[in-house]
Amino acid sequence: xxxxxxxxxxxxxxxxxxxxxxxxxxxxxxxxxxxxxxxxxxxxxxxxxxxxxxxxxxxxxxxxxxxxxxxxxxxxxxxxxxxxxxxxxxxxxxxxxxxxxxxxxxxxxxxxxxxxxxxxxxxxxxxxxxxxxxxxxxxxxxxxxxxxxxxxxxxxxxxxxxxxxxxxxxxxxxxxxxxxxxxxxxxxxxxxxxxxxxxxxxxxxxxxxxxxxxxxxxxxxxxxxxxxxxxxxxxxxxxxxxxxxxxxxxxxxxxxxxxxxxxxxxxxxxxxxxxxxxxxxxxxxxxxxxxxxxxxxxxxxxxxxxxxxxxxxxxxxxxxxxxxxxxxxxxxxxxxxxxxxxxxxxxxxxxxxxxxxxxxxxxxxxxxxxxxxxxxxxxxxxx
Length: 383
Ligand SMILES: C[C@H](CCC[C@@H](C)[C@H]1CC[C@H]2[C@@H]3[C@H](O)C[C@@H]4C[C@H](O)CC[C@]4(C)[C@H]3C[C@H](O)[C@]12C)C(=O)SCCNC(=O)CCNC(=O)[C@H](O)C(C)(C)COP(=O)(O)OP(=O)(O)OC[C@H]1O[C@@H](n2cnc3c(N)ncnc32)[C@H](O)[C@@H]1OP(=O)(O)O
Hints:
This protein is an alpha/beta fold. The protein has two domains: 239 residues, Crotonobetainyl-coa:carnitine coa-transferase, domain 1 (Rossmann fold); 78 residues, formyl-coa transferase, domain 3. The protein has 15 helices and twelve strands. α1 links the parallel β1 and β2. It is elongated, with a radius of gyration of 25 Å. The relative contact order is 0.14. Bound molecules: ligand LNO2BQTQ. Ligand LNO2BQTQ binds next to α3.
């Protein structure tokens, strides 16, 4: 796999850092999740695929010393705490990079390492708000709407941090040097929105929120309810595709206002809605599948893996516990990701194995254990 041989230490965090670590693991890195002690009854990381767990108390100096030793042999450290936490533990980048100048020290936070919010708590919705992006999301006359925490946490956070890490690993092949990655989710999600910024002069966003082409203003970029209570998604932007939509709906474009007549959009939405409400989702699929009308069913999680297109591409996978989840993307032709099919690790499940692998002796491990700096877990203890 593309990242095989890369050793990653991921300090356990909430949502974004676990995704970042999981992406690296899917593509072949050996990812160790460093969990807290005392170990909680249940691991809250649901993105532990392909990782191993080491339970280590970083608040105690011998625990921090263990992490320092691990970092000497690691390629990447991912830390998900607000600015200042790692420094307080004596594990700041100046310390760890001095001991291992090849280390890539990725700091995945909401507000970044500087600025007046750097030490403040926050979550996806706050980062989205500060990036400006939240002001663009939502329907007409409604408050801004934060979709599930996909945008800041995962896209602007976990994914961009993984991209930063891979970029730094590539650069290291030339310079031989590591570096610090300051991955702020505010900036990550703002960067993702570059199209919104760069298209300001195209007239795409001149109208209030929810009344523009791509923000639920246009009748041809909308979802519509079907007679069986399901939905269809319509994205017929270009005139030639719009024409196919009109045809599929059984309408005559000569008798309709022009596609870009903004003032007619609310009326056209009502018309489209009343037509979509007359057939089931399956009936609409049989009309639109195989056309260029850009009309697709809105699938539920229960339906998505068995949809023909997704099945043909094996886009979803089942692990040993029969849990379905998306296959890692994108697909690399020679070295694709090979996700683990095993269950996620229990907290502390691999503590001993990892420490031995990183050169700790059995005696050192026994001492750390008796001093309660590390913990082990038998799988059954967590069930
Ligand atoms: C919207 C999302 C968040 C969604 C999260 C949900 C999925 C989950 C949130 C609550 C969960 C539920 C809950 O736990 C109850 C149940 C528990 C059960 O086990 C499972 C079911 C639950 C229902 C459970 C289910 C789900 O898991 C939840 C619903 C987001 O936006 S995530 C993005 C958040 N932001 C960031 O990540 C940005 C950077 N980080 C931060 O800004 C802060 O970390 C944050 C997130 C604000 C949290 O602040 P906090 O004060 O808690 O932490 P920090 O200041 O960063 O400091 C960390 C302290 O911990 C110490 N520490 C760390 N590692 C160790 C260690 N190995 N050993 C010892 N100590 C450690 C560290 O030293 C710091 O200590 P100090 O505070 O003393 O400095």
